[in-house]
Amino acid sequence: MTMKRATVLLLTATALFAAGSGKATAELTPEEVAKLGNELTPLGGERAGNADGTIPAWEGGITQPPAGYRPGDHHPDPYPDDEVLFTITRDNMAQYASKLSIGHQQVLKQYGDTYKMPVYRTRRSASVPKYSSDATKEHAAKVKLVNEGNGVNIIPGGIPFPIPKNGQEVMWNHLCRYRGATGIRKIGQVAPTRSGDYTMVQLEEKWLWNYHYSGTIVSDETQVAAYFEQKITSPAKLAGTILMVHETIDQTRQPRKAWVYNTGQRRVRRAPNVAYDNPGTAADGLRTADQLDMFNGAIDRYDWKIVGKQELYIPYNSYKLHSDQLKVEDIVKPLHINQEHTRYELHRVWVVDATLKEGKRHIYKKRRFYIDEDHWGAMVIDQYDNQDRLWRVSEAHCINYYDVPVFFSTLDVHMDLLSGRYLAHGLDNENEMYDFTLQSKQSDYTPAALRRRGRR
């Protein structure tokens, strides 16, 4: 299926059907389900390329590591010979404005002396294990929104809504996308001053995503869909603090549960405020709790609307930023990361607006999400304050961890345009590589287990 596209936002038939709708919609028909893996990718993206050939057809993504890769390596770039096609700067951005997010346009204007976007050939590298794509099709006609869209009826094991009918369904795809069923990573986080000074915070994060095990009917007993733990290992004044989260499917019916182990008190305490716009861990106020992984948690405070699909320049295949040939100091610079090491490509994205509901509270009055059609992760987000000013612009610089395979962020960057600062979360260049083979189980994520780990 090849479709002509203008250079402005396109409202698809899906978007027209769902515009303004935040409620559950009709189940998929057998004819719609039959498109998955045929004219659509197994996860619901358009298999065909675009009319002018700048976006190629999806041919399965990366399905095996490149020659010479060894488990534990920092994932060598599978496209080492790709060269920069052109670079978007403040001086030429008008030429590319129709394919730039509002946030990127503002960043180029504000930081134009140093900020640029090197654009490369588009590589549709995203892929997931076959069991995940099979589960997507198996449950596509069964998964429904429940409780005004704040939950789903089945833990799908794949993308719950590969042919979304409203903005909530798109966001559930982001929340439930494949990120490896279990794993651990050791990463760095920095929040530089305007002049570029920073203190590295080292984090150890591990997870167990129940929603990658398909077909479970959601009930009070099966509400917990994911387990997550984040431990600070440095600097010394913060080291040893551990956050543990039980993520529930419908957080309006059963809020997420969280605990913190405090090294000073040597006690485990409930942490009821690890949600929404409460501050993120050691982020110096530059990230909210629900900005971890670009967006997480309950969706009940916003109205969600599909704006359309758009061809957009987004971070993609960011193997240079991931490389162990770089030091953190090569990446962290004043105002924004070193754009010399970034890679942007033209991809189709779902554009979804989140507008704060009347009577609800959040520091972001509006958020615009740009979500990749091939793996359903949010790649760019524009966030506005309560005075309708564009406040923060977030980017997920992703790669295919082809030993799994999983398309997942190697570095999330949140740029605060009002303060001139930013947060970079995920710096792994000088750390051990992610381990997606961790044998994790639910009993590892209990308060008692947390207490034992904290006292070691």
Beta percentage is 25-35%
| Spatial sequence of strands, sheet with the most strands | 12-11-10-9-7-6-19-18-17-16-15-14-13
Give the uncertain stretches in residue-range form: 1-24
Structural classification: alpha+beta
Helical content (DSSP H or I, runs of 4+): 10-25%
Give the SSE order as H and E letters: HHEHEHEEEHEEEEEEEEHHEEEEEEH
| Quaternary structure of the protein | single chain
Give a topology summary.
Blueprint: H1 13-18, H2 30-35, E1 86-88, H3 102-110, E2 117-119, H4 130-139, E3 145-146, E4 151-152, E5 154-155, H5 167-176, E6 182-190, E7 201-209, E8 216-217, E9 224-234, E10 242-248, E11 257-262, E12 267-270, E13 302-315, H6 319-322, H7 328-331, E14 344-356, E15 366-372, E16 378-384, E17 390-401, E18 406-416, E19 421-427, H8 447-454
Antiparallel strand pairs: 1-2, 3-4, 5-8, 6-7, 6-19, 7-9, 9-10, 10-11, 11-12, 13-14, 14-15, 15-16, 16-17, 17-18, 18-19
Description:
The chain has a domain at 13-179 and 286-432. 12% of the residues lie in helices and 29% in strands. It starts with 12 loop residues before the first helix and ends with a helix. The strands form four sheets. It has a 13-stranded antiparallel sheet with strand order 12-11-10-9-7-6-19-18-17-16-15-14-13, sandwiched between helices. It has a two-stranded antiparallel ribbon with strand order 1-2. Mean pLDDT is 92; it is low at 1-24. It has eight helices and 19 strands. The chain has helices spanning 13-18, 30-35, 102-110, 130-139, 167-176, 319-322, 328-331, 447-454, and strands at residues 86-88, 117-119, 145-146, 151-152, 154-155, 182-190, 201-209, 216-217, 224-234, 242-248, 257-262, 267-270, 302-315, 344-356, 366-372, 378-384, 390-401, 406-416, 421-427. With 456 residues, it is α+β, with helices and mostly antiparallel strands. Strand 3 (145-146) and strand 4 (151-152) form a beta hairpin.
